[in-house]
Amino acid sequence: MSTYHPLTEQEAIDIARSIEAFFPADASLSCKEIGDGNLNLVFHIKDSVSGKSLILKQALPYAKVVGESWPLTLDRARIESEKLILEGKLAPGLVPQVYKYDPELALTVMEDLSDHVIMRRGLIEGNIYPLFADHISTFIANTLFFTSDLGMNQQQKKLQVKSFINPELCKITEDLIFDDPYTLSDNNNYEAAIEDAAAALRSNDELHLEVAILREKFLTNAQALLHGDLHTGSIFITKQSTKVIDPEFAFYGPIGFDIGAVYANLLMNYVAQAHWSKDEAAREAHRSYLLEMVVSIWNQFHDKFLALWEAHGVDRLANEAKGYKQYYMKRILQDAAGYTGAKMIRRIVGLSHVIDIDRIDDDAVRNSCQRQVLNIGTQLIIRNRSLQSIEELVDIVKSN
Ligand code: SR1
Ligand code: MG
């Protein structure tokens, strides 16, 4: 057993070579560290003889995006590998295969998805993904239903809640999403040109009440085992295939939080298409496509979740009480709207941004997009508890 230390590229090659029956004996392995996320090292190992490849992901004991001054638990590597394995069982084909987890090194060895692209980049290029709504609605419905009190043994669920307690990663979300944007915080990061819009977030009492309610649900509502960070940078995609990665923020929380993460990132791309699409017709086509995708994801998720409930529901009263299913699904939709708004706002004024918006080089266009994201986010949060349909969510987006 090795004691923890950040791996060198040569050590990553040696570990990859030891994965049984993966690389042939005459493999000629090369390695490159390719991690471009906020937290971890990611080694890409390739055999030039067979063409086979692997990913080794190693957690660092601090948040890479900030540095060693922000210590972070290595237990997130366990949570990530256990969640990936569980997701692979509940939503087959929609996550990378895990070959090995090494707790000492906080290391997960998994399938290389280099034949896919990160969805955020694909959307910026204006690509269409015809199967995405089907795939992601299956992923969300299956992983959330079967880890909830509706779909699994309720005593086992309590043990699962315990095993996925993830206090440090949850605190990042609690601070960066549900606190910092609404106060003067050193973590905040936004341009002087939108100071007035950022200040408006800090003085809006109606908004603060709704964010406090969303925050409370995030802190206390252990509804299902969430991915916890389901943005378009956590999704590898092609026209035929979707693979969800990076569940290190997994914990038991409100179902709407995962849906809100997907929506927020689709909608920020929707706003940013004002810059990224070459001509007006292409831009409008892509924007319509993104809004249709938002509607389709909800409708498919709704139908799939209810079908699972019908076939596999374990809670007699929840199964039979008249009106309960409608109540439950509407609450998920309303939570999803609120979390969509919260996740949009944090990416404009908070610590960690998205390239859809940040890489717009024209200052005026970028600032205008930032303001639009803040407006949509604010309205979604303020109106979340009265929202009645997915079409209403789309209307809020279009009217801002
Ligand atoms: C300090 S980590 C910043 C962000 O990166 C992750 O992807 C999460 O979204 C987190 O909030
Ligand atoms: Mg991540």
UniProtKB/TrEMBL annotation:
Alphabetical GO biological process terms: L-methionine salvage from methylthioadenosine
UniProt KW keywords: Amino-acid biosynthesis, ATP-binding, Kinase, Methionine biosynthesis, Nucleotide-binding, Transferase
Pathway entry: Amino-acid biosynthesis; L-methionine biosynthesis via salvage pathway; S-methyl-5-thio-alpha-D-ribose 1-phosphate from S-methyl-5'-thioadenosine (hydrolase route): step 2/2
UniProt xrefs under Gene3D superfamilies: 3.90.1200.10, Phosphorylase Kinase, domain 1 (3.30.200.20)
Domain Aminoglycoside phosphotransferase: residue ranges: 31-265
EC assignment: 2.7.1.100
Residues noted as binding substrate in the record, renumbered to the chain: 229, 346
Catalyses which reaction(s): 5-(methylsulfanyl)-D-ribose + ATP = 5-(methylsulfanyl)-alpha-D-ribose 1-phosphate + ADP + H(+)
Pfam family, one: APH
GO molecular function: ATP binding; S-methyl-5-thioribose kinase activity
Binding sites annotated in the UniProt record for ATP: 40, 57, 111-113, 246-248
Similarity comment: Belongs to the methylthioribose kinase family.
Function, in words: Catalyzes the phosphorylation of methylthioribose into methylthioribose-1-phosphate.
Assembly mode: Homodimer.
Protein name: Methylthioribose kinase
Native source species: Paenibacillus montaniterrae
